C-alpha cells in the first residue's frame, strides 16, 4: 500500500461524507435562515419554533433520499472490500 492509495481512499471517504451530509445540511440551513428571518420580523423568539421544522426537514430529506444515500455508502464499502487484495500485495 502506497501513500497515494491512502490519500485516494481518504479523499473518496471525505467526498462521500460531503455527498451524504450535503442535502440534509442544505435543507436545515435554508429552513433555519427562513425561520430566523420570520422570527426577526415577528419578534417571536421561541426556541422550539426553529427546532421542529429543521427536524421535520431533515426527516423529509432522509425519507426522500435515504435509499440513494444507502446505495452510495454500500457502493463505497464494496469498493473498499474489492481493494483489499491489492492493498495487501
TrEMBL record:
Membrane topology: Multi-pass membrane protein
Positions of transmembrane segments: 20-39, 51-70
Cleavable signal peptide: none
GO biological process: protein secretion
Cell compartment(s), UniProt: Cell membrane
Cross-referenced InterPro entries: Bac_export_3
Entry GO CC: plasma membrane
Similarity-based family: Belongs to the FliQ/MopD/SpaQ family.
Name of the protein this chain belongs to: Flagellar export apparatus protein FliQ
Native source organism of the sequence: Actinomarinicola tropica
Organism lineage string: Bacteria, Bacillati, Actinomycetota, Acidimicrobiia, Acidimicrobiales
Amino acid at each position: 500500500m502506497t501513500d497515494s492509495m491512502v490519500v485516494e481512499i481518504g479523499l473518496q471517504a471525505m467526498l462521500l461524507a460531503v455527498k451524504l451530509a450535503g442535502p440534509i445540511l442544505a435543507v436545515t440551513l435554508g429552513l433555519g435562515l427562513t425561520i430566523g428571518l420570520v422570527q426577526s420580523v415577528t419578534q417571536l423568539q421561541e426556541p422550539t419554533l426553529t427546532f421542529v421544522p429543521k427536524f421535520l426537514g431533515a426527516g423529509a430529506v432522509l425519507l426522500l433520499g435515504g435509499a440513494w444515500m444507502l446505495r452510495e455508502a454500500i457502493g463505497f464499502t464494496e469498493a473498499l472490500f474489492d481493494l483489499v487484495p491489492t492493498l495487501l500485495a
